[in-house]
């Protein structure tokens, strides 16, 4: 195997730190021509034996890295530089092919002289082209000019007596200016830290003005009792351009964003992105959960004229496969109950779940009914004491992301964005994020969907996403590429379960429900177990007599768990949740059947609002009733005073109550008798007829009273 070839670099060592580097230009079995790449010398001859001995003895070695060769792509070379290169190449192109004669001084001199006469260039320039060609790897690009090395790029020039930089345009007026010294740069840093890197968000111009006021002034003057700094003239201070130049040179973007705004903003919008959301994820079992308010208004199933607002969409997604594992649609955002219902849905049989919404699927369409090893959420839903059941009973790890770091749950956040794109254009009552202008229709009045129907739409979206959506952004690893796994969530999920096992867990559905379902306190009443105006009972509880005890011993509290999606039943338990009783709605509460807790709470809120709104009307009507009663009573008192005798005592008034009652009953019977026809066809005026009737009734009443009194008197005499 050849140890070195033409164009190889030989590094010669003389026992000190100094070394010589030569490039091999030509060689045969005995000799080689080389050139020192660091010295202005022409090629010279070396014996092959000397090179071999030096390499064997460690006095020389072959350099692997070639820092002298010019590597530039043709499209990156400026046209001006290409012209210089091509012109030089035309001069030496025929010479460099005449190896090894070109390395001999006499032969080379003749060729250079002839080329000088032909091209009109000096012999020294032509020799410089040849040496540059040999030193830099014997390529055409070796003849490119070294303009890229000009200007000491990246190096700071030392300040001297002469003003650096472009001369000022109006030097006669504003002066020549000053150089920026180390002391001035120190002032720049102090001013930027003091006035720019602050929450005041001062502009760079204002920062310069404040710096000039504080650090570039000559004493003070007093006007109206105020000390005013006297700033130095422009000729004696650095200009704003110099200040801006040094600011940009030493600018710290991270410090600027964090100090002027917040570290949260930097982490969210400006931090470097060098990782991937799949880093450290090798199999299914890490779920992300989040909630987003839907961009549509819904109506109530109790009354479709009631607009109940926008739904809260809770979604659970597998980080590895991007498969949607759980769903819950409610009306409360950021609640523990909503998050737990979504996680509970992830453990449910999806065939039965879809059946509740009239959607028929097979097990293979949505084969997820597992608990994850880890759940990733933000600090809203899964923080606090409520999450203890998830950790202690189900042994699920919980990772809460920092505030305002939605990017750490990119999979579920992306799903929400995709869902909006898929369904929003077709939904009545969708919101316009750009807002409404005067005269525009109110999109809330266009709401038509209820909570049940919107959930049906979301299920359809999830089935499409899981089984058909291609993840264009997904980066498959080597194992997936070998198995040719499609970037479709269900395919990635099935492949992960089959080949990497996953970190999923299967737990009894009852245990999961009791651990995840929201719990609350209900009241045992004579009518049943009351919770939010709903009454429940069961056969065993009814036989136990607790409802009868509630009538005699009073009401008592009891612990329950419930499924917010369907309030037709609840689970009642005491201190041990595993010993529970399932209770169902009583017939009197049938209006709540098949309704979600949000719908029921909205109905109760509406009814309460209606009661509150009607309180003034009720109070006004009751006041009117009292006033009318008082008026009638007053009239009765006046009639009593005008018609009764003052001779009768109170005893005489109550003595004949039975007789008076019988007389009154007789008269009432005559007045209320059904008279379907009359033989008397004589016509009387209504007023006269009414007056005659009243006189006849009064006479009849007095007559009957006397008869009753006479009969009662005779009875007393007999006794």
UniProtKB/TrEMBL annotation:
* Keywords tagged on the record: Coiled coil
Q: Name one Pfam family in it.
A: Mu-transpos_C
| Parts forming coiled coils | 619-646
Signal peptide boundaries: none
Q: Does the keyword Cell division apply?
A: no
Q: Name one GO biological process term.
A: DNA integration
Q: Which PROSITE patterns match?
A: INTEGRASE
GO MF entry, a single one: nucleic acid binding
Q: Could you identify this protein by its name? A: DDE-type integrase/transposase/recombinase
Ranges that cross the membrane:
none
Q: Which residues form the Integrase catalytic domain?
A: 280-478
């Amino acid at each position: 195997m050849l140890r070195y070839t033409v164009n190889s670099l030989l590094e010669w060592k003389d026992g000190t730190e100094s070394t010589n580097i030569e490039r091999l230009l030509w060689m045969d079995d005995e000799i080689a021509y080389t050139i020192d790449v660091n010295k202005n010398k022409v090629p010279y001859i070396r014996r092959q034996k000397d090179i071999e001995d030096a390499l064997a003895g460690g006095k020389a070695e072959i350099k692997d890295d070639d820092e002298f060769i010019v590597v530039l792509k043709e499209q990156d070379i400026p046209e001006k530089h290409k012209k210089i290169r091509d012109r030089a190449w035309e001069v030496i192109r025929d010479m460099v092919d005449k190896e090894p004669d070109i390395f001999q001084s006499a032969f080379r001199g003749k060729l250079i002289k002839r080329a000088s006469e032909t091209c009109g260039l000096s012999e020294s320039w032509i020799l410089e082209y040849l040496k540059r060609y040999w030193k830099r790897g014997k390529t055409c690009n070796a003849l490119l000019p070294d303009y890229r090395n000009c200007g000491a790029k990246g190096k700071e020039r030392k300040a001297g007596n002469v003003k650096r930089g472009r001369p000022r345009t109006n030097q006669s007026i504003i002066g020549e200016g000053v150089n920026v010294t180390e002391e001035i740069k120190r002032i720049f840093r102090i001013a930027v830290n003091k006035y720019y890197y602050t929450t005041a968000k001062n502009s760079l111009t204002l920062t310069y003005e404040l710096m000039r006021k504080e650090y570039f002034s000559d004493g003070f003057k007093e006007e109206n009792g105020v000390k005013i700094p006297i700033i130095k003239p422009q000729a004696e201070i650095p200009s704003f351009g110099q200040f801006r130049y040094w600011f940009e040179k030493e600018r710290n973007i991270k410090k600027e964003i964090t100090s002027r705004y917040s570290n949260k903003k930097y982490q969210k919008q400006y931090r470097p992105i060098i990782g991937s959301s799949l880093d450290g994820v090798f199999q299914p079992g890490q779920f992300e959960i989040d909630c987003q308010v839907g961009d549509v208004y819904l109506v109530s199933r109790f009354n479709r004229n009631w607009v109940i607002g926008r739904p809260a969409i809770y979604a659970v997604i597998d980080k590895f496969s991007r498969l949607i594992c759980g769903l819950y649609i409610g009306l409360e955002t950021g609640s523990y109950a909503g998050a737990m219902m979504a996680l509970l849905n992830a453990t449910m049989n999806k065939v039965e779940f879809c059946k509740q919404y009239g959607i028929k699927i097979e097990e293979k369409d949505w084969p997820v009914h597992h608990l994850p090893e880890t759940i990733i959420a933000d600090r809203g839903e899964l923080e606090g004491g409520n999450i203890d059941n998830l950790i202690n009973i189900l042994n699920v790890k919980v990772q809460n992301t920092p505030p305002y770091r939605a990017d750490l749950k990119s999979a579920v956040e992306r799903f929400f964005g995709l869902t909006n794109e898929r369904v929003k254009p077709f939904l009545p009552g969708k919101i316009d994020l750009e807002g409404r202008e005067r005269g525009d229709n109110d999109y809330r009045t266009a709401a038509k969907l209820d909570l049940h129907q919107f959930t049906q739409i979301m299920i359809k979206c999830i089935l499409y996403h899981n089984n058909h959506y291609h993840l264009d952004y997904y980066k498959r690893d080597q194992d997936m590429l070998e198995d040719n796994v499609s970037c479709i969530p269900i395919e990635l999920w099935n492949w992960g379960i089959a080949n990497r096992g996953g970190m999923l867990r299967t737990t009894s559905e009852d245990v999961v429900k009791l651990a995840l379902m929201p719990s609350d306190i209900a009241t045992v009443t004579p009518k049943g177990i009351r919770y939010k105006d709903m009454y429940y009972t069961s056969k065993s509880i009814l036989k136990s007599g607790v409802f009868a005890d509630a009538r005699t011993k009073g009401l008592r509290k009891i612990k329950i768990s419930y499924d917010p999606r369907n309030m037709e039943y609840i689970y009642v338990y005491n201190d041990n949740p595993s010993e529970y009783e399932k209770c169902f709605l009583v017939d009197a509460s049938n209006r709540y059947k098949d309704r979600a807790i949000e719908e029921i709470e909205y109905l109760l809120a509406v009814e309460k609002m209606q009661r509150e709104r009607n309180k003034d009307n009720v109070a006004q009507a009751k006041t009117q009733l009292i006033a009318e009663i008082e008026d009638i009573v007053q009239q009765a008192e006046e009639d009593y005073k005008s018609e009764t005798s003052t001779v009768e005592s109170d005893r005489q008034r109550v003595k004949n109550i039975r007789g008076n009652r019988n007389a009154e009953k007789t008269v009432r019977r005559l007045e209320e008798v059904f008279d379907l026809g009359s033989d008397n066809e004589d016509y009387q005026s209504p007023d006269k007829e009414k007056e005659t009737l009243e006189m006849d009734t009064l006479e009849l009443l007095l007559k009957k009273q006397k008869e009753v009194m006479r009969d009662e008197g005779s009875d007393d005499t007999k006794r």
